[in-house]
């Protein structure tokens, strides 16, 4: 079975062949060769195959499930290197927060983020909302993860958990 990298290489090669057949079709029209209309068909078919392989490459993403990760909501995303997620305060502890940050780093990675901004790392910050008094909401950042934008997998993610912030979360009845 092909993996994602192989399909990118195949799509690039098919793109080159498509451009070459298109150039050959243009030459056939310039020199009035008899098979010029067949070359239009070949070029169109090659373009269709190239687009199909490229789309297949995009659809083969396998979602990784990190054990112990809690659900999170996307609060802010600049499309580049800064993301903020929200987690329910009732389910947070250091272990589940680490798993949730890893899950968010895997889920929110996109190769399109690489071109945005000058920073080669994406920072995902996790927050909870505390309500110290009725009618008052306070965002509390409980951790963050920094991962590379250079590839889908990052074995060297920098995960920071803020124990002082987790200690501020009041105990919730389960």
Describe what this molecule looks like in 3D.
- The chain has 174 residues and is of the alpha+beta class.
- It has two domains: 56 residues; 95 residues, no CATH class.
- It is 40% helix and 23% strand.
- The chain contains four helices and five strands.
- A five-stranded mixed β-sheet has the order 1-2-3-4-5.
- Strand 2, helix 3 and strand 3 form a beta-alpha-beta unit.
- The longest helix is centred in the first third of the chain and has 27 residues.
- The model has no long low-confidence stretch (mean pLDDT 86).
* Poorly predicted ranges: none
The rounded Rg comes to 24 Å
Strand order of the largest sheet: 1-2-3-4-5
Biggest sheet record: 5 strands, mixed
What is the helix/strand order? HHEEHEEEH
Number of strands: 5
Distance between the termini: 46 Å
Beta fraction of the residues?
15-25%
Which structural category do the helix and sheet elements fall into?
A: alpha+beta
Mean pLDDT: 86
- Helix fraction bin: 40-55%
Q: Total number of helical segments?
A: 4
The total tally of domains equals 2
Overall spatial form: rod-shaped
Topology, please?
Layout: H1 4-30, H2 36-59, E1 73-77, E2 82-86, H3 94-107, E3 121-133, E4 136-148, E5 158-161, H4 163-167
Parallel strand pairs: 2-3
Antiparallel strand pairs: 1-2, 3-4, 4-5
Helix pairs in contact: 1-2
Features:
single chain, alpha+beta, 40% helix, 23% strand
What is the gist of this entry?
This protein is an alpha+beta fold and 174 residues long. It is 40% helix and 23% strand.
């Amino acid at each position: 079975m092909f993996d994602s990298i192989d399909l990118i290489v195949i799509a690039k090669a098919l793109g080159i062949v498509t451009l070459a057949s298109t150039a050959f079709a243009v030459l056939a029209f310039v020199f009035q060769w008899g098979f010029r209309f067949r070359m239009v068909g070949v070029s169109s078919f090659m373009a269709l195959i190239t687009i199909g392989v490229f789309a297949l490459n995009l659809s083969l993403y396998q979602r990784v499930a990190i054990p112990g990760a809690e659900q999170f909501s996307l609060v802010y995303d600049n499309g580049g290197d800064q993301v903020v997620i929200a987690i329910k305060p009732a389910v947070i502890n250091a272990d589940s927060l680490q798993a949730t940050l890893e899950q968010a780093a895997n889920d929110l990675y996109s190769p399109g983020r690489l071109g945005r901004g000058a920073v080669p790392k994406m920072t995902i910050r996790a927050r909870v909302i505390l309500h110290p008094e009725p009618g008052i909401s306070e965002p509390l950042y409980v951790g963050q993860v920094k991962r590379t934008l250079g590839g889908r997998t990052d074995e060297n993610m920098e995960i920071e958990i803020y124990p002082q912030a987790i200690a501020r979360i009041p105990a919730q009845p389960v």
